[in-house]
Design a protein that fits this description.
10 helices; alpha/beta; about 290 residues; single chain
């Protein structure tokens, strides 16, 4: 039997995306599908996990296994799924509020723990689902519903924090560069370990500052500048570079290291989902003695 060649239609869900027309998340969904097709990962081998927010609706718009979790908790769930069944391609998806706000602790520890899954963040620098409040990546003095007098808190630097927390793969993309974004997601999924892609995904309804034209005139592809993805100092420099003339996008850092799942004795005998976890009477008695 000739193996079926994957196409984008294989990932088309029966539910169409309901984001606002022009939302950058459409491009992220499209780029993810392209990456999965390019990598020949069929839907039944893909698990997409999300938290809460506009972007976190993504699992409902792609044909694969999906898990729509609670606010800020997608990463420990994605981690547990990967440890239970390492044969799955696991992708966590969310936004800057979900991931960098309430989920910040899980995100930092995912960077250092290095379980083999991919995290894509649709960073629109605003809370979109709750109709336009300041997020952890909103600019200083940005006027929103929650900061009508202007935001007084400095925005965090997601890619810089990820690097300092030990993430072995860090990239930054832009929804206005779909082919380039698809290549970044493909590289992230191919990376053996935790991989993060922060994506400028403009909110056309509530953020009139960080728009497509804003980024289009500033983003510069690192690979066109001869950037060394193995150089940690160069990655940090790229992460800290943000000006009216240049905002770097591309793979900032890609240096594999030993993954947590490759050293965890609990998964060395293969996926838990495929193992007999029952006990015979003797094993049961020995286990009860240990608890006595």
């Amino acid at each position: 039997m000739i193996p079926k060649t994957l196409t984008l239609d294989d990932f088309k869900h029966t539910t169409d995306p309901d984001w606002c027309p022009g939302c950058g998340d459409f491009a992220v969904l499209n780029a993810l599908k392209h990456a999965l097709v390019k990598l020949d990962r069929p839907p039944h081998q893909v698990q997409v996990v999300s938290g809460i927010g506009c972007s976190s609706n993504l699992p409902g718009f792609i044909r694969s296994y999906g898990f729509h979790s609670i606010h800020g908790r997608s990463l420990p769930i994605a981690m547990g799924i990967k440890l239970a069944n390492p044969e799955l391609t696991v992708v966590a998806a969310g936004g800057d509020g979900d991931g960098y706000g309430i989920g910040c602790g899980h995100w930092i520890h995912s960077c250092r723990r290095n379980v083999d899954f991919t995290y894509i963040i649709m960073d629109n620098q605003i809370y979109g689902l709750t109709t336009g409040q300041t997020s952890p990546t909103s600019f200083l003095d940005f006027a929103t519903k929650s900061t009508p007098g202007g935001n007084k808190e400095a925005p965090l630097n997601p890619v810089g924090l990820a690097l300092m927390a030990g993430a072995p793969f860090v990239a930054r993309g832009f929804s206005g560069e779909v082919k380039h974004l698809a290549s970044l997601i493909e590289a992230a999924i191919s990376h053996p370990g935790f991989a993060m892609v922060d994506i400028f995904s403009p909110c056309v309804t509530y953020n009139k500052v960080n728009t497509y034209p804003y980024f289009k005139g500033r983003v510069k592809k690192l690979e066109e500048e001869g950037h060394d993805t193995k150089d940690f100092k160069a990655a940090l420099a790229a992460a800290q570079s943000w000006s009216d003339e240049r905002i770097p996008i591309g793979v900032l850092y890609d240096r594999p290291r030993t993954t947590y799942d490759s050293t965890d004795p609990g998964v060395q005998q293969g996926p838990l989902v495929g193992r007999d976890l029952s006990m015979d009477s003797q094993q049961g008695e020995e286990f009860l003695k240990e608890l006595a």
